[in-house]
Amino acid sequence: MTASVSPPSPSRHSHSPPMSGSTAKNVRRTRGDHNPLRPDLQASLVVFVVALPLSLGIAVASGAPVAAGLLAAVIGGVVAGALGGAPLQVSGPAAGLTVIVADLVHTYGWRVTCLITAGAGILQILLGLCRVARASLAVSPAIVHGMLGGIGLTIVLGQFHVVLGGQAESHAWENVAAVPEAIIDPHGFATLVGFVTIATILLWPRLPKRLPNAVRAIPAYLAAVVTGTLLAAVAGFDLPRVDLPSSLFDAVALPGLPHGDWSGIALGVVTVAIVASVESLLSAVAVDQLATTRGWRGPRVDLDRELLGQGSANLVSGLAGGLPITGVIVRSSTNVASGGRTRKSAVLHGVWVLLFAVFLGRMVEWVPLSALAGLLVVVGARLVNVAHLRHVRRHGELPVYLVTIVGVVALDLLQGVALGLLTALALVLRRVLWSSVRLVRTGELWQVEVEGTLSFLSLPRLARILGRIPAGAPVSIELIVDYLDHAAYEHLRGWCANHEASGGTVSVDEIGQVWFRRPAEVAEQRRRTVVPHLPRWFAPWSQWQELELASSSSDSPSSDSPSSDSPSSGSRSSDSQPAGVTPPAIHPVQGPDPAASVPAQASPDRTFDHVSTMLFGVNEFHRRAAPLLRGTFDALAGGQQPGALFLTCADSRIVPNIITSSGPGDLFTIRNVGNIVPVDDPAGSDPDAPLRRSGDLSVTAALDYAVDVLRVPSLVVCGHSGCGAMQALLSGTLDGAPDSALAGWLSHAAASLERTPPAGTEDLPPVERLGRANVAQQLENLRAHPAVRRALARGTLELVGLYFDIADARIWVLEESTGRFVDPMDALPTAVIGTGSRRRWDAPVRVPAPMVAVGAGPADEQPPPAGRRARWLGLPR
């Protein structure tokens, strides 16, 4: 008596990309490895060879001692790596702070800059303790990328002069002005070394695949610096080279106090802290996403802890005489790509830098400054990320990016970022307060479409467009606005009155929320709230078309109730009209578009008015829904593959696609009075024997087609509250007309009266209990169908019972284990919804467990047919 369920399978809607071979290999390493330190050890060595030349180059570009770059790399790796909240992020001196540090060194000297670095670290720690790290995510990515792009261009403009054999000027504009003279002047060997370094970085990833993997695995930055150094050494070029102290420990210097200008020091502290924090946090988020896509399942990033770790590293670096530290995306992405699994890889990379500086530091003095300048030219150029620029442009924030990047280059970092923030706020205000106004002429109709926020800022444009409409013309104004301020309301109301006074007609169609038109009974009251409207694809015609009540003595609307005088069941909703109440006729006063073939006032006939109302709905579909759904229907034009057969009542209040949040192609729907499945072949007979037809072939044919041809994975029977068929079955009103078609049809549901009422329905009215029992009985009837029985035996089909409470707009699911109607979330298996664990957004969705209870009570509990209605009504038999 249980439904068969097919085994779980990956969701068709999963957004997870197929796992590549390398990713699967990485996942296998994370799940089991005899030496858990090995992946981190390998990754740390790769990160070390990438970080070493970058640390030297950034120190040179900043005007700081070269050893300060190595100190910052060591402290960033060990301190930030051990204390930070992003396990796979690697920290160290970053190109994003080069311009700021260079300006601080030029203005205050190196030792005061170390004091500013330590102060920035303390500020970062305080921010981390205040748990405000997530506030950095509110900064527009266009501003961040514009800031980094401006810094990159500044680095390129300065280091390009070093490559050409000269010296960088103090300001970007001075470097730009000096470029022509630097190009014309004769160049020496420094230019050759610099261009060889640049060419090596660009060409190294394109090395032929026939070369050994060990050669091609060397990072391009390290290979370029080594190539430039070897060229200068072999050729005997006399070039300025890196100058290191005799020992790395000699570079350690306590910060010094400034001689006045504490306001500038405070500004420098805030600048370094904010820029370093934002860059580190955004890098941490990016690294976390990158690691997740590669199969890493470690702890998620903790931004507040990351801020504490970065602040601690900057505090130590400032006290030790190192450069400011941030999380660096280049090193971090290298760490992830190299197989780093824990924070040990970041810590070990700092250890390798320390060992190199202590024991092999003299090798650095062979590196020409022009080779490091060539490396920095490429690093700076790559900060202007073209891929990010495309994303920014697609989201409409290109002005923010351009203003920020120009401001950073032309003025300074803080002023550039401030200009970017102001530009971003201006764009937000424009999107919030600006509206789109279009004028379209269709025949004699002038149609005005207004979208967005209609405020006083849009009035000049609205007035200009309305002024183009000739007097006396029919006008349709479509307001698709989320806000209509007082000035716009008064202007629009005055224009409508003047246009109608000149002989024209105006139809105002508000789509979404009602701001302009008010009910007559509250027209003189102050408007305090907006009137919410359902989306038109959910709402009945009466809620979005302009309908008015008209006196009519027409009959009440039809329903699936076979008798209008059936007794009340006690339910809050019923298919029948109350006695003595005649529903008024409704008809459109003025439709939004004259494209409808028949005007609303052409005939007073009620049937004609309802046809006209439907045609307005069809026209609305053509105008609004069809453009959105055309691609979906085009994909479905070649065939259908529904996910379920949905059998429900013909009641007009039941809309399967709405109550299941489904769309075109999802449900193969069967509708009839009472959601009944007529039994053609008794259960238990030979499935290959010829069917004995009951005379009702429609449902049987649909079942055969859905199960055998479409091979739907599930069959759903959905009953509902206040069902007229159940009322007629319970009251016996059709017993006097046994030969009627309706009585013959409802005879297929007579077995529902024999069932024991479902558990948990004792307090419900009889018709509601019978409606639920009927769902279980129709599932039994489905099992008697040969095609269904075969599919259940194969395990390719499951049955589901639903019950829709119209008044509460709530669906209940028939649970197999208890026979009760329960909440859908309670019917789902624990593995899907989770009790203490979380299911990933891209994890496969498991097939729910059987949710169908179709078992009746023992045979001795079945009441005799003569007393079945008495039992349901609670009367003595």
Automatic annotation (TrEMBL):
Domain SLC26A/SulP transporter as annotated: residue spans: 37-398
Bilayer topology: Multi-pass membrane protein
CC per GO annotation: membrane
Cofactor remark from the record: Binds 1 zinc ion per subunit.
Molecular functions per Gene Ontology: carbonate dehydratase activity; zinc ion binding
Localization per record: Membrane
UniProt entry tagged with the keyword Metal-binding: yes
Chain sites annotated for binding Zn(2+): C649, D651, H720, C723
Catalytic reaction list: hydrogencarbonate + H(+) = CO2 + H2O
InterPro entries in UniProt: Carbonic_anhydrase, Carbonic_anhydrase_CS, Carbonic_anhydrase_sf, SLC26A/SulP_dom, SLC26A/SulP_fam
Gene Ontology BP term (one): transmembrane transport
EC number: 4.2.1.1
Cofactor(s) the protein requires to work: Zn(2+)
UniProt entry keywords in alphabetical sequence: Lyase, Membrane, Metal-binding, Transmembrane, Transmembrane helix, Zinc
Bilayer-crossing regions: 41-61, 68-88, 108-130, 142-164, 184-205, 217-237, 265-287, 346-364, 370-388, 400-429
Compositionally biased spans, kind Low complexity: 551-576
Disordered: region residues: 1-36, 549-603, 855-877
Function: Catalyzes the reversible hydration of carbon dioxide to form bicarbonate.
Record-stated family: Belongs to the beta-class carbonic anhydrase family.
Protein name in the entry: carbonic anhydrase
Source organism of the structure: Frankia casuarinae (strain DSM 45818 / CECT 9043 / HFP020203 / CcI3)
